[in-house]
Amino acid sequence: MNHGRISATRMIAGIAATLAAVLLAVPLSAPAQAATATGYKLQTVTLASGKTTVARWNPCQAAITYQVNLAGLPKAKRAAMLALVKKSFAKLAAVDGLTYRYTGTTTFVPKRNNLAAGPAEIVVAAVGRNATDLGLGENSLGYGGTVWSTWYGSNGEGAAVVRGFVVLNPSGMASLKPGFGKGKTQGNVVLHELGHATGLEHVSGKDEQMNPILMSTAPNGYGAGDRAGLKTIGRDAGCITISSAVKVADLS
């Protein structure tokens, strides 16, 4: 007998999934977990049995859909940012081997109480800090994370990520160099938050994209540790058989 979902969402790839710019000289608000020194750190969840497991997307689903909300940006800047987001997903897919599919724009704004109700599996929103309650501090550049579900029953127990989200601070992004490249670029912010939206947590290595501070040492794209972490939770990790009792609509 399958007992179905026993836990759903509680925030998610770390309450500290924010990114601050070093040029602002302001630390992040208190992180939920300390960043690891090097390499990568994966998001984990606790199952009904008390065991912990890595929280990741099912790599065998046809595609992970995403939509974009750019309402917080000037209209003249939206086309360039949409192109940057699409390229960021392509860079992510090239590392983790997952399939991401753009399905259009949206007016949806990720908030603490609606994350499971998103119109796509990942929503990227560039909106004012007052539009969301996800902890975008004055000097934060972005915030990202996941929503997961766990289950147990006669066929065993497990966990899977079912939603992801990224919120970008328009004013902070405007202070950065457009496009990609080493250091303080808009592309590095998006790649960092997409790392959270796929299951990576912060590390303190200065040559990793998942460092919580955007520095001049940030790599052009994902660093060696970032790539190792993304491969660990990507296609090579194998399929997840998600319980039929798990219904994303029930998580909101």
Can you walk me through this structure?
With 252 residues, the chain is α/β, with parallel strands linked by helices. The chain has one domain: Collagenase (Catalytic Domain) (3-Layer(aba) Sandwich). The protein is built from four helices and ten strands, in the order E-E-E-E-E-H-E-E-E-E-H-H-E-H. It has helices at residues 75-96, 170-174, 186-198, 224-232, and strands at residues 2-7, 18-21, 44-46, 52-54, 64-69, 100-105, 122-126, 140-153, 158-168, 213-214. Strands 1, 2, 5, 6, 7, 8, 9 and 10 form an eight-stranded mixed beta sheet that branches. Strand 5, helix 1 (75-96) and strand 6 (100-105) form a beta-alpha-beta unit. The chain is globular and about 55 Å long. The model is unreliable at 1-34 (pLDDT under 50).
